[in-house]
Design goal:
mainly beta, globular
């Protein structure tokens, strides 16, 4: 069983918005940095966004900067990814991760979800 569970994926049209959510299946991750990664078809997994434990540090991948927003709700032990102006190249499996610091490197994160599919058609 994954430590984190993603939801909110789906199929949308270009220009639409989606909000992904990630919650802990067990325990709490409120003291951890949280991040979103994605894996596009035929590509390696890439960094999307990260937020520090106190939400004072936000990091975004270049391809999503200005369109995606990461946030966290500690009361609900959750992290969200608001995605706007979606494009076909945003089609991917999106993964939630937790680790000690808000970094771009995949191996910085210890806990992972199983992913949620986002499909954007033109």
């Amino acid at each position: 069983q994954a430590d984190l569970v993603e939801s909110g994926g789906g199929s949308v049209q270009a220009g639409d918005s989606l909000r992904l959510s990630c919650v802990a299946s067990r325990g709490t991750f409120n003291d951890y940095a949280m991040a979103w990664f994605r894996q596009r078809p035929g590509k390696e997994r890439e960094f999307v966004a990260a937020i520090s434990g106190f939400a004072t540090i936000l990091e975004y991948g270049d391809s999503v900067k200005g369109r995606f927003t990461i946030s966290r709700d500690k009361a609900k032990n959750a992290v969200h990814l608001q995605m706007t102006s979606l494009q076909p190249e945003d089609t991917a499996v999106y993964y939630c991760a937790a680790g000690p610091g808000a970094r771009r490197e995949e191996d910085s994160y210890t806990y992972w979800g199983q992913g949620t599919q986002v499909t954007v058609s033109s």
